[in-house]
Write a structure and sequence with these properties.
By secondary structure, this protein is mainly α. Helices cover about 75% and strands about 0% of the residues. It has one domain.
Amino acid sequence: MTKINKLNIIIPVLSLAAFGIIAYLTNYVGVFNNFDLNIVIFFHNIAVNHSLILPQFITDFGYGAIVYMILIILTIILSYYRHYKDAVLLNLAINSALLASGFFKEMFKRLRPALEYHLTQAEGYSFPSGHMLVSVCFYGTLIFIIFRLIKSNRLKYILSALLLLLIILIGLSRIYLGVHYPSDVLGSLFFGVFIVFFWINLYNLIENVNL
């Protein structure tokens, strides 16, 4: 087993373990309650005195119409150039995120921050953050595809850095807008990494079998 293959196993295993620990400590022990609330209040005090146009614009890239539009466009482009497996991979990643988000929200039933902190519309339960989970899975998988298909190293790293920055900003925007706690976002980050590596490993396995 190569070093890279070992990392492809170690990273998702550690990420899944981290998610489990955060989920347990957050939803059953309440370890992060005070920390979570203090961070939400901190961001709220900043947000109420500033325009919400930019954070709302950023958060829209984590869920809903914009994400589906990007997904459709990328699926068409990848299919046109006969990268069918990459198109399937991208769709599997985002749909896995949606299913996992719905499942865990119903499982834990964690309430969102109080309505007084909400600066955008949000429904349903809080843990994990659906926006963050979708963005990690979608843009994380897209980074993998970028490294597979784009030849220019400079372009690879620039696009990947921008996508990583977008993921971070989406997570922060959910806290800034008062609809998620930091632990919601952090839990989504770890489970999203697990999903991304799960599908990447399966993809690589299929590729190796077909060689």
